[in-house]
Write a structure and sequence with these properties.
This protein has 390 residues and is an alpha+beta fold. The protein folds into 2 domains: 181 residues, Aminopeptidase (3-Layer(aba) Sandwich), CATH 3.40.630; 118 residues, Alpha-Beta Plaits. The chain contains 11 helices and 16 strands. Helix 2 crosses helix 4 and helix 7 crosses helix 8. The longest helix is centred in the N-terminal third of the chain and has 20 residues. The chain is globular. The two termini are 32 Å apart. The structure holds zinc ion. The site of zinc ion has 6 residues, from helix 4. Zinc ion (ZN) binds next to helix 4.
Length: 390
C-alpha cells in the first residue's frame, strides 16, 4: 500500500525529479575549491517548497554543509541520510562527450560530472524526504538529511565537522545511516550492504640526490633515477609488511557473490567474462598503491637533485600507516638508500624522505558474518573515507 502510494507519487512527478537532479549536476561544486554552498542553496529552496526547513552551515569561501529534518523530534528512532555535494574536477572538458555541467539527458540516462558520484544519490535522498513529508508517511521517529561538503578532499570540513559540531553537541543519535555512494559493482545485482571501509594513506615520497651539469651526469646523483628505482620496486612492498589475518579473502568474496545469484555457474561466467570484476575483487581485499603525481627536474641540462611522488595507498583492516612507513623504509634500505626525516643539510646528502599528506583508518564491522542473512550479502567498500558511527 505504502509502496504503491510512493510509486504513484514518483510517476506523477517524474519530470520534476529529473529536472531537480539535472539542476544539482548543473550547479558547479568542483572540489577543489568546493563551492558546495551553491548546491546547498538549491537543496534548501527545493525542500522549502516541500514544507521542509533546512539549516545551512556556511564556512570558508562559498562552502557549506546542510542539515534538514522531517520534524524536530529526535528522541525516537532516527534514520540519517548522508550525501556529499562536492564533485571531483572534470579535467580536460574537451574530452567529455557531453559537457560536465550540461546534465545531458540521453537514452534514459543523465550524463554530467557527479551524476553518479553522487548527486544522483543525493537527489534521491532529498526527493524521498519531500515525498515522505508530503504523504505524511512517517508517524514516529525522524529522517535527517546531512548534505556535506569536502568529501572529495577528506571529509574533515564536511561529515566530520557535522558529527562533532552538530550531532554530538546536540546529542542527536541515529539508529541507521544510509550513504548514497555509488558502488561500482556492476554487473552484480544490488542487495549489498557495505561492512566497512579501507584505510587511506596519501604519502609524499621525496628522493634527494645531488645536482651536477649533465654534460657529465656521473658526478651527480639523479633524483629522478632514484625515484624510478623506487617505483619499479614498489610492488615488492608486501614482502616488507607484517602478515595480517585476512578479514575477507577473494575466495570468500566470490562465495558471497554466488549466494545472491541463482547458481555458482552464473557467477563464474560473469567472473570469467568480465576482467574488470577480477580487478574490483582484488582491490576490495588487498593493499593497493598507485603513484598518481610525480614532479622533478628544473632544467634540461641539470641533473636533478630533487624528485617527489604522491602515492595513494588503500589499507585493509589490520594494516596501519606505521606498518606501511616501516615497510617502505625497509624496501628503500634494500635498494641501498637511507630514509631520513630531516631535510637536506649538505648538497652531497643522498636519501629519501617519507611525508604523510593525509591518512584515515580503515573500519570493519567485526561480527558481520554472524549478522548475515541468507540473501543479504556484504561487501567491503574501498574508495571513500567517511566516519559515520554515531
Ligand atoms: Zn562520492
Amino acid at each position: 500500500m505504502i509502496e504503491e502510494l510512493v510509486n504513484k507519487e514518483i510517476d506523477n512527478n517524474r519530470e520534476e525529479y529529473i529536472e531537480f537532479l539535472r539542476e544539482l549536476i548543473q550547479t558547479e561544486s568542483y572540489n577543489p575549491p568546493g563551492n558546495e554552498k551553491n548546491v546547498a542553496l538549491k537543496i534548501e529552496k527545493y525542500l522549502r517548497n516541500g514544507g521542509i526547513t533546512c539549516e545551512i552551515f556556511p564556512f570558508g569561501e562559498n562552502r557549506a554543509n546542510l542539515i534538514a529534518t522531517l520534524n524536530n523530534n529526535f528522541s525516537e528512532k532516527n534514520l540519517l541520510y548522508n550525501g556529499h555535494m562536492d564533485v571531483v574536477p572534470p579535467g580536460s572538458e574537451e574530452k567529455w562527450k557531453f559537457p560536465p555541467l550540461s546534465a545531458t539527458l540521453k537514452r534514459n540516462k543523465i550524463f554530467g560530472r557527479g551524476a553518479t558520484d553522487m548527486k544522483g544519490g543525493l537527489a534521491a535522498m532529498i526527493i524521498s524526504l519531500k515525498i515522505l513529508k508530503k504523504l505524511h508517511l512517517i508517524s514516529s521517529g525522524n529522517l535527517i538529511l546531512n548534505a556535506v561538503a569536502d568529501e572529495e578532499t577528506g571529509g574533515k570540513l564536511g561529515t566530520e565537522w557535522c558529527l562533532k559540531k552538530i550531532f554530538f553537541q546536540k546529542g542527536i543519535k541515529s539508529n541507521f545511516i544510509i550513504i548514497g555512494e555509488p558502488s561500482q559493482i556492476d554487473p552484480i545485482p544490488s542487495k549489498v550492504i557495505f561492512i566497512g571501509e579501507k584505510g587511506e594513506l596519501e604519502l609524499k615520497v621525496i628522493s634527494n640526490g645531488t645536482s651536477s651539469h649533465s654534460w657529465n651526469p656521473f658526478t651527480g646523483k639523479n633524483a629522478i633515477y632514484m625515484m624510478t628505482d623506487f617505483i619499479q620496486n614498489l610492488d615488492k612492498l608486501d614482502e616488507f609488511l607484517p602478515k595480517i589475518e585476512s578479514f575477507l579473502s577473494v575466495e570468500k568474496l566470490i562465495a558471497l557473490f554466488s549466494v545472491i545469484l541463482p547458481n555458482k555457474e552464473i557467477f563464474e561466467r560473469i567472473y570469467n567474462e568480465q576482467p574488470i570484476l577480477k580487478n574490483i575483487l582484488y582491490s576490495l581485499t588487498q593493499l593497493t598503491e598507485s603513484v598518481n603525481i610525480i614532479k622533478g627536474g628544473i632544467k634540461s641540462n641539470v641533473v636533478p637533485d630533487y624528485c617527489e611522488a604522491i602515492i595513494d595507498f588503500r589499507l585493509v583492516p589490520g594494516q596501519t600507516t606505521d606498518m606501511i612507513i616501516n615497510g617502505l623504509t625497509k624496501l628503500i634500505d634494500e635498494l641501498g638508500y637511507q630514509v631520513k626525516q630531516n631535510s637536506k643539510t649538505k648538497s652531497e646528502d643522498v636519501f629519501f624522505n617519507l611525508e604523510i599528506v593525509d591518512q584515515s583508518e580503515s573500519s570493519i564491522w567485526e561480527n558481520w558474518e554472524r549478522s548475515m542473512t541468507l540473501k543479504t550479502f556484504l561487501l567491503f567498500k574501498s574508495w571513500h573515507f567517511r566516519c559515520l558511527f554515531l
